What does this fold into?
Amino acid sequence: MLHQDNVLRAITDDGAFRVIAADTTATVRGALAAQKPPSPELSRTFADLLTGAVLVRETMAPENRLQAILQGDDPRIRMVADTYPDGATRGLIQMPDGVKAMPLGERGMLQVARTLHNGALHQGVVRVPNDATVSAALMAYMQDSEQTVTMIAVGCHMAQGEVVAAGGYMVQLLPEASEGPLMVMTERLKDFQDIVPLLARGGASPEELLQETLYGMPYTKVGDRNVHFGCNCGPDRLVLSLGSLPRADIESLMQDGKTLDIQCDYCRQTYEFTVEQLRSLLERN
Ligand SMILES: [Zn+2]
It folds into this structure.
Protein backbone atom coordinates (compact mmCIF):
# COMPACT_ATOMS: atom_id res chain seq x y z
CA MET A 1 0.00 0.00 0.00
CA LEU A 2 1.21 3.50 -0.75
CA HIS A 3 2.24 5.58 2.22
CA GLN A 4 -0.12 8.50 2.89
CA ASP A 5 1.34 11.58 4.56
CA ASN A 6 -0.68 13.92 6.72
CA VAL A 7 -0.34 16.90 9.02
CA LEU A 8 -2.36 17.23 12.23
CA ARG A 9 -3.18 20.40 14.12
CA ALA A 10 -4.21 20.48 17.79
CA ILE A 11 -4.76 23.06 20.54
CA THR A 12 -4.46 22.34 24.24
CA ASP A 13 -7.75 22.80 26.05
CA ASP A 14 -6.21 25.50 28.30
CA GLY A 15 -5.43 27.54 25.18
CA ALA A 16 -1.69 27.59 25.95
CA PHE A 17 -0.24 25.69 23.01
CA ARG A 18 -0.83 24.89 19.41
CA VAL A 19 0.86 21.74 18.15
CA ILE A 20 1.33 20.72 14.55
CA ALA A 21 2.75 17.33 13.65
CA ALA A 22 3.53 16.10 10.17
CA ASP A 23 4.43 12.86 8.47
CA THR A 24 6.17 13.78 5.23
CA THR A 25 7.71 10.41 4.35
CA ALA A 26 6.12 9.94 0.91
CA THR A 27 6.39 13.64 0.07
CA VAL A 28 10.11 13.62 0.80
CA ARG A 29 10.59 10.40 -1.19
CA GLY A 30 8.88 11.97 -4.20
CA ALA A 31 10.86 15.20 -4.02
CA LEU A 32 14.16 13.34 -3.55
CA ALA A 33 13.42 11.07 -6.52
CA ALA A 34 12.87 14.16 -8.69
CA GLN A 35 15.86 16.19 -7.45
CA LYS A 36 18.37 13.40 -6.73
CA PRO A 37 20.68 15.19 -4.28
CA PRO A 38 24.24 13.84 -4.61
CA SER A 39 24.75 12.92 -0.93
CA PRO A 40 22.71 11.58 2.03
CA GLU A 41 23.59 14.75 3.94
CA LEU A 42 22.02 16.93 1.25
CA SER A 43 19.02 14.60 1.12
CA ARG A 44 18.42 15.10 4.85
CA THR A 45 18.74 18.87 4.65
CA PHE A 46 16.31 18.93 1.72
CA ALA A 47 13.89 16.65 3.59
CA ASP A 48 14.02 18.89 6.66
CA LEU A 49 13.33 21.99 4.60
CA LEU A 50 10.28 20.34 2.96
CA THR A 51 8.90 19.21 6.32
CA GLY A 52 9.58 22.62 7.85
CA ALA A 53 7.75 24.40 5.03
CA VAL A 54 4.68 22.20 5.58
CA LEU A 55 4.71 22.93 9.34
CA VAL A 56 5.12 26.68 8.91
CA ARG A 57 2.38 26.84 6.26
CA GLU A 58 0.06 24.84 8.45
CA THR A 59 0.53 27.24 11.36
CA MET A 60 0.84 30.61 9.59
CA ALA A 61 -0.98 30.16 6.31
CA PRO A 62 -2.98 26.92 6.11
CA GLU A 63 -5.15 28.30 3.30
CA ASN A 64 -2.30 29.78 1.29
CA ARG A 65 0.88 28.88 -0.49
CA LEU A 66 4.23 29.05 1.29
CA GLN A 67 7.74 28.93 -0.10
CA ALA A 68 10.90 28.42 1.95
CA ILE A 69 14.35 29.00 0.50
CA LEU A 70 17.50 27.82 2.22
CA GLN A 71 20.75 29.32 1.02
CA GLY A 72 24.10 27.86 2.04
CA ASP A 73 27.28 29.63 3.09
CA ASP A 74 28.05 29.37 -0.60
CA PRO A 75 25.25 31.48 -2.12
CA ARG A 76 25.29 29.32 -5.28
CA ILE A 77 23.80 26.47 -3.24
CA ARG A 78 20.06 26.86 -2.70
CA MET A 79 17.15 24.65 -1.81
CA VAL A 80 13.52 25.60 -2.30
CA ALA A 81 10.43 24.05 -0.72
CA ASP A 82 7.07 25.03 -2.11
CA THR A 83 3.87 23.93 -0.39
CA TYR A 84 0.21 24.53 -1.26
CA PRO A 85 -3.00 24.48 0.80
CA ASP A 86 -4.20 21.25 -0.88
CA GLY A 87 -1.08 19.61 0.58
CA ALA A 88 0.81 19.41 -2.72
CA THR A 89 4.46 20.03 -1.91
CA ARG A 90 7.49 20.15 -4.17
CA GLY A 91 11.13 21.16 -3.96
CA LEU A 92 14.08 22.32 -5.99
CA ILE A 93 17.83 22.03 -5.46
CA GLN A 94 20.14 24.46 -7.22
CA MET A 95 23.87 23.89 -6.95
CA PRO A 96 27.01 23.66 -9.06
CA ASP A 97 28.14 20.18 -10.17
CA GLY A 98 30.35 18.27 -7.77
CA VAL A 99 28.91 19.78 -4.58
CA LYS A 100 28.23 17.16 -1.90
CA ALA A 101 27.56 19.30 1.16
CA MET A 102 25.75 22.49 2.08
CA PRO A 103 27.43 24.20 5.04
CA LEU A 104 25.04 26.72 6.63
CA GLY A 105 26.67 27.93 9.85
CA GLU A 106 28.61 30.93 8.51
CA ARG A 107 26.44 32.84 6.09
CA GLY A 108 23.45 30.52 5.58
CA MET A 109 20.04 32.17 5.21
CA LEU A 110 16.44 31.00 5.42
CA GLN A 111 13.88 33.00 3.53
CA VAL A 112 10.15 32.34 3.84
CA ALA A 113 7.48 33.87 1.64
CA ARG A 114 3.79 33.27 2.13
CA THR A 115 0.68 34.67 0.58
CA LEU A 116 -1.62 36.60 2.92
CA HIS A 117 -5.43 36.48 2.86
CA ASN A 118 -5.55 39.72 0.85
CA GLY A 119 -3.18 38.29 -1.75
CA ALA A 120 -0.17 40.33 -0.58
CA LEU A 121 3.13 38.62 0.12
CA HIS A 122 4.67 38.32 3.59
CA GLN A 123 8.41 37.71 3.44
CA GLY A 124 11.02 37.19 6.09
CA VAL A 125 14.72 36.35 6.03
CA VAL A 126 16.83 35.09 8.92
CA ARG A 127 20.42 34.06 9.34
CA VAL A 128 20.80 30.31 10.00
CA PRO A 129 21.92 30.06 13.67
CA ASN A 130 25.37 28.71 14.52
CA ASP A 131 24.31 25.12 15.10
CA ALA A 132 23.37 25.14 11.42
CA THR A 133 20.31 22.91 11.55
CA VAL A 134 17.12 23.47 9.58
CA SER A 135 15.12 23.14 12.84
CA ALA A 136 17.10 26.00 14.41
CA ALA A 137 16.70 28.14 11.30
CA LEU A 138 12.93 27.57 11.35
CA MET A 139 12.73 28.54 15.02
CA ALA A 140 14.75 31.70 14.34
CA TYR A 141 12.37 32.53 11.50
CA MET A 142 9.26 32.06 13.66
CA GLN A 143 10.78 34.21 16.42
CA ASP A 144 12.14 37.06 14.28
CA SER A 145 9.71 37.25 11.45
CA GLU A 146 6.43 35.91 12.84
CA GLN A 147 7.00 37.02 16.48
CA THR A 148 5.92 33.71 17.96
CA VAL A 149 7.75 31.51 20.41
CA THR A 150 7.94 28.15 18.70
CA MET A 151 9.77 24.91 19.25
CA ILE A 152 10.39 22.95 16.09
CA ALA A 153 12.01 19.62 15.36
CA VAL A 154 12.19 18.17 11.86
CA GLY A 155 14.03 15.04 10.81
CA CYS A 156 14.52 12.31 8.26
CA HIS A 157 15.63 8.78 8.99
CA MET A 158 17.41 7.06 6.12
CA ALA A 159 18.75 3.54 5.74
CA GLN A 160 20.77 2.27 2.77
CA GLY A 161 20.22 5.56 1.04
CA GLU A 162 16.42 5.27 1.24
CA VAL A 163 14.03 7.40 3.26
CA VAL A 164 12.48 5.24 5.98
CA ALA A 165 10.54 8.04 7.68
CA ALA A 166 10.44 11.82 7.60
CA GLY A 167 8.43 14.26 9.67
CA GLY A 168 8.42 16.77 12.43
CA TYR A 169 6.47 18.80 14.91
CA MET A 170 6.05 22.38 15.98
CA VAL A 171 4.83 23.55 19.38
CA GLN A 172 3.71 27.13 19.45
CA LEU A 173 3.09 29.23 22.51
CA LEU A 174 -0.26 30.99 22.29
CA PRO A 175 -0.90 34.42 23.87
CA GLU A 176 -3.01 32.81 26.63
CA ALA A 177 -0.07 30.77 27.89
CA SER A 178 1.40 31.56 31.28
CA GLU A 179 4.88 30.95 32.66
CA GLY A 180 4.03 27.60 34.32
CA PRO A 181 2.95 25.49 31.34
CA LEU A 182 5.76 26.95 29.24
CA MET A 183 8.37 25.68 31.68
CA VAL A 184 6.76 22.25 31.79
CA MET A 185 6.65 22.13 27.99
CA THR A 186 10.25 23.31 27.55
CA GLU A 187 11.39 20.59 29.97
CA ARG A 188 9.30 17.96 28.19
CA LEU A 189 10.51 18.82 24.70
CA LYS A 190 14.16 18.41 25.68
CA ASP A 191 13.59 14.69 25.13
CA PHE A 192 12.30 15.28 21.59
CA GLN A 193 14.68 17.91 20.25
CA ASP A 194 16.11 15.33 17.91
CA ILE A 195 13.23 13.34 16.48
CA VAL A 196 15.33 11.09 14.26
CA PRO A 197 15.56 8.35 16.96
CA LEU A 198 11.77 8.50 17.26
CA LEU A 199 11.41 8.25 13.47
CA ALA A 200 13.87 5.36 13.42
CA ARG A 201 11.82 3.28 15.82
CA GLY A 202 8.58 4.00 14.00
CA GLY A 203 7.15 6.16 16.77
CA ALA A 204 6.72 9.48 14.97
CA SER A 205 3.32 9.36 13.31
CA PRO A 206 1.54 12.72 13.72
CA GLU A 207 -0.84 11.10 16.19
CA GLU A 208 2.07 9.77 18.28
CA LEU A 209 3.92 13.08 18.08
CA LEU A 210 0.85 14.87 19.47
CA GLN A 211 0.56 12.38 22.29
CA GLU A 212 4.27 12.59 23.12
CA THR A 213 4.59 16.37 23.04
CA LEU A 214 1.29 16.98 24.84
CA TYR A 215 1.67 14.14 27.29
CA GLY A 216 -0.85 14.57 30.10
CA MET A 217 -2.35 17.77 28.66
CA PRO A 218 -5.93 17.64 27.42
CA TYR A 219 -6.10 18.78 23.79
CA THR A 220 -8.44 18.96 20.84
CA LYS A 221 -7.56 18.15 17.27
CA VAL A 222 -8.52 21.04 15.01
CA GLY A 223 -7.21 19.90 11.65
CA ASP A 224 -6.04 16.89 9.67
CA ARG A 225 -4.79 17.51 6.20
CA ASN A 226 -3.29 15.40 3.46
CA VAL A 227 0.27 16.17 2.36
CA HIS A 228 1.78 14.76 -0.81
CA PHE A 229 4.50 15.29 -3.36
CA GLY A 230 2.94 17.24 -6.17
CA CYS A 231 3.70 19.90 -8.72
CA ASN A 232 1.37 22.40 -10.30
CA CYS A 233 3.20 22.50 -13.59
CA GLY A 234 1.40 21.63 -16.82
CA PRO A 235 1.38 22.47 -20.50
CA ASP A 236 -0.83 25.54 -19.95
CA ARG A 237 1.51 27.05 -17.38
CA LEU A 238 4.52 26.42 -19.59
CA VAL A 239 2.80 28.08 -22.53
CA LEU A 240 2.25 31.12 -20.31
CA SER A 241 5.89 31.31 -19.28
CA LEU A 242 7.12 30.65 -22.82
CA GLY A 243 4.76 33.37 -24.02
CA SER A 244 6.42 35.87 -21.69
CA LEU A 245 9.83 35.33 -23.33
CA PRO A 246 11.17 37.97 -25.70
CA ARG A 247 10.26 37.36 -29.33
CA ALA A 248 13.88 36.70 -30.32
CA ASP A 249 14.18 33.94 -27.70
CA ILE A 250 11.10 32.14 -29.00
CA GLU A 251 12.45 32.44 -32.55
CA SER A 252 15.76 30.91 -31.51
CA LEU A 253 13.92 28.00 -29.85
CA MET A 254 12.24 27.33 -33.23
CA GLN A 255 15.45 27.56 -35.24
CA ASP A 256 16.26 23.89 -35.76
CA GLY A 257 12.64 23.14 -36.65
CA LYS A 258 12.40 20.32 -34.10
CA THR A 259 9.92 19.66 -31.35
CA LEU A 260 11.06 21.32 -28.16
CA ASP A 261 11.28 19.31 -24.92
CA ILE A 262 10.94 21.34 -21.78
CA GLN A 263 11.40 19.75 -18.39
CA CYS A 264 9.89 21.07 -15.18
CA ASP A 265 12.74 21.89 -12.76
CA TYR A 266 10.71 20.73 -9.76
CA CYS A 267 9.15 17.41 -10.75
CA ARG A 268 11.17 16.61 -13.92
CA GLN A 269 8.08 16.02 -15.99
CA THR A 270 8.82 16.68 -19.66
CA TYR A 271 6.50 18.61 -21.97
CA GLU A 272 6.72 18.74 -25.75
CA PHE A 273 6.14 21.83 -27.83
CA THR A 274 5.87 21.60 -31.58
CA VAL A 275 7.19 24.31 -33.87
CA GLU A 276 3.54 25.08 -34.73
CA GLN A 277 2.75 25.73 -31.07
CA LEU A 278 5.76 28.04 -30.77
CA ARG A 279 4.75 29.87 -33.93
CA SER A 280 1.28 30.46 -32.57
CA LEU A 281 2.87 32.03 -29.47
CA LEU A 282 4.66 34.51 -31.76
CA GLU A 283 1.42 35.34 -33.50
CA ARG A 284 -0.25 35.99 -30.17
CA ASN A 285 2.55 38.33 -29.03
ZN1 LIG B 1 6.47 20.08 -12.30
